[in-house]
Amino acid sequence: MTRALRFWRFPAFVTLALLVALAVLPGRAELLVRLYALVIATFVVAQLLERLRRSLPERTTSPVDAALARRPRPVIRVPELEKIEREVTLGLTTAFDLHFRLRPTLRRIAYELLRARRGIDLDANPTAARRALGDETWELVREDREPPHDRFGPGIRLESLRQVVVSLEAL
Asked: Which residues does residue 135 pair with via DSSP β-bridges, in sequence order?
């Protein structure tokens, strides 16, 4: 079917509907003609807008817009930080995880900080290390700390862990 024939289908149908309406309602001829004119005008405007839209180039992002568009930075998590987060979570849960997962990390941190900032060896000079760390931190990181008898017992309290972190940061 040609394009022109498809274009004239709707106006022909509306004209036929007008003729039928005029035959059925002859007293409303003025209203029907105005309605007919409105429908045909709407159709013509819609066809003109469609042709205008097709004549314009497709809308694409300009190189300037693409350059200015902010690209979200991918969130990169440090694997060591994720490991410490897991150890803290587990250490807060059970005594076993506190002793065998979180404690070695805290002990390594305490060892390095004492050695680098105070010149104290954690294992060789336990008295000086205890004074520098404080009793609560010392009890957690000392070399001869006994493993827990109840593996499923409670881990460290969050307040206690905060105090340990504060004492390590104070070194």
From this structure: none
Q: What is the DSSP string of 91-133?
A: HHHBHHHIIIIIHHHHHHHHHHHIIIII---TTT-HHHHHHHH
- 0.90 cut: is pTM over it? no
134: left (phi over 0), alpha (psi -120 to 50) or beta: left
The pair of three-digit structure tokens given for residue 141, joined into one six-digit string: 């990181």
Token reading at 59: 């809308």
Rounded Cα distance between 168 and 138, Å, is 10
* Structure token digits, residue 109: 């941190």
Q: Name, in order, each residue with C-beta under 8 angstroms of 21's C-beta and a sequence gap of 6 or more.
A: 28, 32
Quickly tell me which residue has 């024939």 as its tokens. Answer: 5
The one-digit pLDDT tens for each residue of the chain (171 residues) are 566 656 788 888 888 988 898 899 888 889 989 999 999 999 999 999 988 888 888 878 878 887 788 788 888 888 999 999 999 999 999 999 999 999 999 999 999 999 999 898 988 888 999 999 999 999 999 888 899 999 899 999 999 999 999 999 988
